[in-house]
Amino acid sequence: MELADLLQPGDGVLDIGANIGVYTERYAEKVGPSGYVLGVEPGIVAITEARERCARFPWVALLRAAVGAKLEAETRLYHDPGATARNSQWAENVIGDPAGSETMRVVTVDFLAEIMLQPIRAIKIGAQGAEMAILDGAT
């Protein structure tokens, strides 16, 4: 069983670390137009693909940002040379030498909950080592 199996029409879902939007798309299909999915992804390449994948769902929003313990001006995202899913805010978490990096803003789960259009019923976190920091930003 996966998270999508537990969702129902009208649910609100927060997808932290949306990457290219595979799970975001699944959640959108399950919650339907009465629901809402907010996907958050720091990587520009991945978020661009996620936006294309989910464009047919007006009840999906995709935000380019990192999620952390506190609102900060910005952080760095280090690129894993093998896969965007392994990009990380910590260079030592990527496999091999980082293939560059990019800068983005940092938001918290509390901030995201405020901008959700539906109450949050489910949260998926796939954040390559930032999970505890993300949870620290959620009251």
Tell me the helix content. Answer: 25-40%
Radius of gyration: 14 Å
Mean pLDDT: 91
The helix/strand class is alpha/beta
Q: Enumerate the strands of the largest sheet in spatial order, edge to edge or round the barrel.
A: 3-2-1-7
Q: List the helices and strands in order.
A: HEHEHEEEEHEH
Strand content: 25-35%
Alpha plus pi helix count: 5
Instruction: Work out the number of β strands.
Output: 7
**In this structure, how is the largest beta sheet organized?**
4 strands, parallel
Task: Please tell me what the overall shape is.
Answer: globular
Cα(first) to Cα(last) distance is 27 Å
- Poorly predicted runs are none
Sum this structure up briefly.
The protein is α/β, with parallel strands linked by helices.
Model description:
The structure is a single chain. With 139 residues, the protein is α/β, with parallel strands linked by helices. It is 27% helix and 26% strand. The chain has helices at residues 3-6, 22-31, 44-53, 109-115, 131-136; strands at 12-16, 36-40, 60-63, 66-67, 72-78, 101-107, 120-125. The strands form two sheets. The protein has a four-stranded parallel sheet with strand order 3-2-1-7, covered by helices on one side. The chain has a three-stranded mixed sheet with strand order 4-6-5. The mean pLDDT is 91.
